[in-house]
Amino acid sequence: MLNINAHIDTESKWLLRNNSDVIFLTETSLAWGSALQPLAETTQHCAEYNDSPFGMALYSHLPLKSCEVRYTTDNDIYPYIRAQLQNGLVVYGIHPPPPITATLVEERNNQLQALATMIKQEKNNVIVLGDMNISAFSPVFRDFIQAADVHLTSPRARPTWLPALLSIDHALVRQSDKVVATGSYSWYGSDHKAIWISYVP
Predict the structure, then answer these.
(1) H or E segment at 41?
(2) Maximum separation of any 2 CA atoms in the chain, in Å
(3) What would the mean pLDDT of 85-114 be, rounded to a whole number?
(4) 40-45-51-52 Cα dihedral, nearest 10 degrees
(5) Residue 5 has pLDDT above 80, yes or no
(6) What φ, ψ does residue 141 adopt, rounded to 5°?
(7) SS3 label, residue 91
(8) Could you give the CA distance from residue 81 to residue 198 in angstroms, rounded to a whole number?
(9) What is 84-147 written as a DSSP string?
(10) How far is CA 139 from CA 60, 109, 115, 135, in A?
(11) 3-class DSSP state for residue 71?
(12) Planar angle of CA 43, 49, 54, nearest 5 degrees
């Protein structure tokens, strides 16, 4: 998702037709919030819409116990979402800052470290989704998934970010044997590919 996506009308209609049980979006601007109001009306959801790269939203066609936009300690800029389905599955939606300056690298790594601690402590099965702004080959990413006790579900070399053809959008799970299939959609209107995962809770 891109907050300046020029194809909001077409892409929002595609999302309304999408039959995914749970949809997590990053970079949800105020315009996206308006365009996706019909989806909000037919799902349980939580969201933060703002005209920055750090809006996000989660929509669920399955019953939810909870859905909250949260912030890690000492951070009020980069949110994450924690939702729990009625079946107990916990879903995290995350979007750490991009590593374009030394300060942002430190903030990204700090957020990943804080999130890993929380995810590790979850007693139920967990899925972690998002534009994580980190390559699947990064040692920091390997440390994150190890600390969080989750597993990567897609090929490390599958490109999801167009400018550099890097894999930085990931779906991570606690139990990899419950993954049926994974894949990605097109680049249409965005510099990121949307990814999908079929998972048996």
Answers:
(1) helix 37-41
(2) 42
(3) 97
(4) -150
(5) no
(6) -65, -40
(7) strand
(8) 20
(9) EETTS-EEEEE-PPP-SSHHHHHHHHHHHHHHHHHHHT-SS-EEEEEE-SS-TT-HHHHHHHHH
(10) 33, 11, 16, 9
(11) strand
(12) 120
Two tokens, residue 43: 């799902």
In whole angstroms, give the CA distance from residue 179 to residue 26: 23
- Comparing CA positions, the residue from 47, 40, 21 lying closest to residue 127 is 21
Tokens describing residue 96: 């750490």
Question: Cα(162)–Cα(146) distance, rounded to whole angstroms?
Answer: 27
What dihedral do alpha carbons 110, 114, 116, 118 form, nearest 10°? -170
Q: Are 132 and 192 in contact (CB under 8 A)?
A: no
High-pLDDT (> 70) share of the chain, %: 97
Cβ neighbours around 177 below 10 Å, total: 7
CA distance 175 to 182: 14
**What is the spatial distance between Cα 39 and Cα 1, in angstroms, rounded to a whole number?**
16
* Residues making up the chain, counted from first to last: 201
State both tokens at 135.
């390559």
Structure tokens at 185: 């959609």
- Asked if 119 contacts 50 with a C-beta cutoff of 8 angstroms, the reply is no
Which residues in 124-153 are b (16+ Cβ under 10 Å) and which e?
ebbbbbbbbbbbbebeebeebbeebebebb
Cα distances from 85 to residues 142, 152, 183, 201, in angstroms, run 27, 21, 23, 10
- In the predicted model, what is the mean pLDDT of the chain? 92
Q: Which amino acid is at 160?
A: T
